[in-house]
Design goal:
There is one protein chain. With 475 residues, the protein is an alpha/beta fold. The chain folds into four domains: 28 residues, no CATH class; 51 residues, no CATH class; 107 residues, Threonyl-tRNA Synthetase, Chain A, domain 2 (2-Layer Sandwich); 247 residues, 3-Layer(aba) Sandwich (Rossmann fold), CATH 3.40.50.300. The chain is built from 13 helices and 19 strands. The strands form four sheets. Strands 11-10-19-18-17-12-16-15-13-14 form a ten-stranded mixed beta sheet. It has a four-stranded antiparallel beta sheet with strand order 6-7-9-8. A three-stranded antiparallel beta sheet has the order 1-2-3, with no helix packed on it. Strand 18 and strand 19 form a beta hairpin. Helix 9 packs parallel to helix 10. The N and C termini lie far apart (104 Å). The chain binds adenosine-5'-triphosphate (ATP). The site of adenosine-5'-triphosphate (ATP) has 15 residues, from helix 8.
């Protein structure tokens, strides 16, 4: 008499009495050898076709020498092929960019697909829990195309049915570790498909020197640093408000000073005014000459300056009403950028309740109504919690530099930003490695982008103040 046991393998588990050892009897299905051979051949053939289709250049380069040797012998093959490496070398020397784009990166992509991703795909998927091993079969997400850019591998993936972006976002560390990358970012490309980004090199690993001053006056977007992919980081300041959040020493000053630097030619042309609030008396006081009488350090002066900005805003709004809905900077109505270093000193940490109220009201008025009439606020903040900065949501653009806690990332960049790879709490506290590094979300995309601000050192600020001090005429 056999007693059946409950569970997944019930039909394979039998025992005669409850206290005897379980006898495991695996089900054996006899597959005809011919069927196995047909399936195997079919897989090899489709694999070859797919390989040639996806990587024609790499396949051609690999196969040609062997094919020529077989067809004409090694001497003739050598004779025929010698011009190829010579030609490639000449191409690489004369037009490095096109050679890299058309040959080098494609070869690299093929190599990394076969050697890194395909080889490790199955174990990484199973161990990370993104694939399943059920009834003796592996159910794995489909590895798609690998594209190499100058700095990262972009890997397309078709998710398993029933998986969500969150399942992948929760396992970014596993994926980075599994494929030997420093980090991993995930983006949904279309229904069921996503793209994983594995950086190979980090263009932001070394500090960036202050950028050259723009040749023509511009109100933005201002180039303030570099993006992870090596492209310039352009920060919009006109028509928005920017909040820069970062722990102490995160490099908030470099974002502020790079922005000011990029705007200086426009300041000189009369198209921009920079009003500075420096309650810590540290950061902006260094370039005080640039701001003239639009500089305040004590809480009383800061409240007065903010209220002046509100008056300018209201007068403009009254003049513009019914005539124009957006602002174009002119000498009569320049763009006013109100820069506030450590805004919490003026709000949350301000002991004088009346002053605190005046400052909070002015800031809230400017951030809710200033955009359309050409008044922008750029505020720096160490602690982004709501208790400290209750108007943080009035800033449409936010930058998360190094933060102390993982929860603070979503407070700054919005829900889900950390899950999508904005690991601002993992940025190195070593200034050379991490100061000025941060994450931003551009308006067009929910995916965070890693950036680094250029470092405007004391000498640069001194030079800027000497050349552009308020009241100096254009050279
Ligand atoms: N973009 C940068 N690249 C390299 N190093 C930087 C950069 N920005 C700042 N640093 C270095 O980090 C140090 C701290 O920077 P900074 O004072 O701007 O930080 P912070 O966020 O303003 O800090 P705090 O809130 O304490 O004032 C600087 O003295 C400088 O040495």
């Amino acid at each position: 008499m056999f007693k059946r046991l409950p569970g997944d393998e019930a039909r394979n588990l039998v025992t005669t009495t409850p206290d005897t050892a379980v006898v495991f009897r695996p089900a054996v299905v006899q597959t005809p050898a011919i069927l196995t051979l047909i399936i195997f051949t079919w897989r090899v053939l489709t694999g070859c076709v797919r390989l040639v289709w996806r990587h024609p250049v790499a396949t051609l380069i690999t196969i040609t020498p062997g094919a020529l040797t077989l067809a004409c012998g090694w001497r003739t093959a050598l004779l025929l092929l010698t011009p190829v490496p010579t030609g490639l070398l000449a191409w690489a020397i004369t037009d490095r960019q096109s050679f890299t784009r058309l040959v080098a990166l494609r070869l690299l992509a093929w190599w990394r697909l076969t050697w890194i991703y395909r080889r490790h795909w199955q174990p990484v998927m199973i161990v990370s829990g993104l694939g399943r091993h059920l009834w003796g079969r592996d159910y794995l997400p489909r590895l798609g195309k690998v594209t190499c850019t100058a700095w990262a591998d972009l890997v397309t993936v078709r998710m398993l049915k029933g998986q969500s972006l969150k399942d992948w976002a929760d396992r970014l560390d596993h994926l980075a570790q599994g494929f030997g990358a420093a980090s991993c970012r995930v983006t949904l490309t279309k229904g069921g498909h996503l793209m994983l980004t594995f950086p190979r090199t980090d263009p932001l690993a070394v500090p960036l020197a202050a950028l050259p001053l723009p040749e023509t006056p511009t109100v933005g977007p201002v180039e303030v640093g570099k993006q992870e992919d090596g492209r310039p980081w352009l920060l919009k300041v006109h028509g928005t408000h920017v909040l820069v959040a970062g722990a102490t020493g995160a490099g908030k000053g470099s974002v502020i000073w790079s922005t000011i630097r990029g705007l200086l030619p426009a300041v000189r042309a009369g198209l921009v005014e920079i009003w500075a609030l420096d309650p810590k008396l540290m950061e902006l006081s260094f370039g005080r000459a640039l701001f003239g009488d639009r500089y305040a350090a004590t809480p009383e002066d800061c409240a007065d300056l903010l209220e002046q900005a509100v008056t300018v805003m209201q007068k403009r709004a009254a003049r513009f009403a019914g005539l124009q809905r957006s602002h174009t900077p002119t000498v009569e109505d320049p763009f006013v950028l109100v820069v506030v270093d450590e805004v919490a000193f003026l709000t949350a940490y301000q002991a004088d309740r009346q002053l605190k109220q005046r400052i909070s009201a002015a800031l809230a008025t400017l951030t809710t109504q200033g955009r359309a009439v050409g008044i922008g606020v750029m505020a720096a903040l160490q602690d982004p919690r709501k208790e400290v900065m209750n108007i943080r949501n009035l800033f449409p653009d936010k930058i998360a530099l190094r933060l102390d806690e993982s929860e603070q990332v979503d407070m700054v960049l919005g829900d889900g930003a950390r899950q999508r790879g904005a690991l601002a709490d993992h940025i190195s506290p070593v200034p050379e490695l991490g100061a000025g590094v941060g994450f931003v979300r551009l308006e067009a995309s929910p995916d965070p982008i890693r950036v680094r601000a250029a470092y405007v050192c004391d000498t640069d600020i001194r030079d800027m103040a000497a050349t552009f001090a308020a009241g100096k005429d254009a050279a």
